[in-house]
Amino acid sequence: MNFESYSTEQRSLIQFLSSHSKDPKFQNFPYTEERPDIFKGDLQAMPTFVNENQVTHIAEISQELTRIITQIPEKIFNNNLSLMYQNWLADNEIPEELAELILLKNLENTNNFVCRGDFILTDKGFKCLEYNVASNIGGWQAEPARTMYLQQEVFRNFIDQEEIIVSVKNPLLEMYKHVINIVPSHISRFNGELNLAVFYDPKDSWNKYGHVYSERIYKRCLSQSGLDYSGKIVFCTPDDLNFREGCVFVGNLRIHALIDQGLICPIQVYLSQSDGFILLFNGLAGHLLGKKSNLGMLKEPENMRKFSSHEQQIIDTLIPETHRINSSLMPEFKSQFANGKDNWVLKQVDGSSGQGVWVGKETELDEWVALLNKAFDLNTYIIQEYVESIPITYRNNQGEYTDHNVIWGFFISGNKYSGGFLRVSEKGNRLVINSFTGARESYMLEIESN
Q1: pTM of the prediction?
Q2: How confident is the model at residue 290 (pLDDT cuts 50, 70, 90)?
């Protein structure tokens, strides 16, 4: 099985490109008003066409898994804050009483999460490798990518020949729409002003391009809301916040909603949310729900039984075999993981951007055994079944059409599917597929029904 058999349109695109001399240039796209710096990683020369049925399926599995993961505090921990602390935060520097207070405030509304699930399309369907809950996850540049793809004559000709209409779902637009839709009902005495603050890393120079684009999208969302709303979006750090009479400010600007990245959010924000002065998105609970160990937790039989039969089927189908490496994992598993190293991937629980991931297939046995010994000593790792990506054809650096491995990233804002993108790496390259390890980004062009 390959993706071209799954997607008739993608197969037609490959045939069209192969038969035309005006192939897209792999680099040096002609940009319009969008700055090239809007893309943190390199853009793959080819888009990925998906039809309406495929988009519906992607939305369904993303939303189903989101509902399951956001039920972990209730279903697995029975909303016991002490158990959550012991499982998620015992090795953290946050004092238990403070962490429990934060979680109590943070879990009052589980519709406040901005997420992205990372999937591989296998010959048995999509499998979720990890699930991220943060505002700094990449892959939201869908609209600029569409603009750049459609500037290429070859793609415009293909679309005309196939007589199709394509669109994109903009994850950033969907996220801000979600914020605008739910904040007013959570803010006491809301008067139509909705100022949004987003935490960011000031050391990352790329952010300035993303901020300009984000400001434009947020203004568009406000103007298209159909309501007489006004407001600004500001990017800040926790140190930029100040607090007066229970409210949160950046300078003198009152903030009504805040999207943060987890552990860095001050306690005053949670208290302000409890008093109805601000709505927080993600927060500490979001960070914890995004831990890689949660997939292993969900696969454990005693935890699976706490979900409905339908939810158990979703867990069984979408999550590959995953184990938390801790004291409850029998020592004989270490020999199984060592002897069958080609079947496994070892991951640090809090790793990101492709760091802290070792694929058994491309790791020497001595190094693999040493990594396993370290993992069993530290209890901060998971081990996951290696799943093979079905090949998808893209253009490589030499202008050839070759098989690539692919990670699909699907966004959720609240409980609603909000778009996606792909990271693609030519077969033969590293099996850790991430923009930081050299993979390129392709964006989905959704084919609208006639």
Answers
A1: 0.89
A2: confident
